[in-house]
Amino acid sequence: MVRSLVDIYVHDGYMPDSRSGNCNGRVEGGSNSDIVVGDAYVKGLAGIDWAKAYEAMVKNAEIPPGDAQKEGRGGCVEYNSLGYVPSSIERSGTRTVEYGPCDWAIARVASGLGKQSDFSKYKSRSANWENLWNSAVTSEGFSGFIMPKNADGQWQNYGTTQWGSWGDWFYEGDSWTYSLYVPQDPTALIAKCGGNTQFISRL
To answer: Distance from first CA to last CA of the chain, Å, rounded?
Structure first.
């Protein structure tokens, strides 16, 4: 499967987030093939061109796609410069949160390949979700939620249970859902939520 992902990158230009009918399907959030490749790398799977796989991961993270609904990372220029995808770009909340574990996967492969400066860069970017964490927002007695932010750094009003789809800020979820999605650093998430007891209560 990982070799297939890399081969698709070689022949089509990007690793897919999904594949349907022999073409890349729509990208809902992150460039999540990065996570599959990173997982395979840390498990030591053999027979994979890791240099080429890493090249594909970096392209996802750095090169704006021609069609952000089909490949790569939509809003990656803004994400890489601002530390989040601004609210003017569709699905920016979903994208910002999902790019974090993708960046952590890239960091792990970079470290294994001896690319220490890349490791530091992508490890740092994996914490970008914190740039959309608004500790002033409360819901159901809990404080701190992922919230939309303009490119100028201004917060937007947004309901914590406001659902979305393709053209919206969140894709098939709300802030309650996405504010708990930090698999790359649950310790930092628990701290943001006020500690273990508060986090368990929130769950």
So the answer is: 34
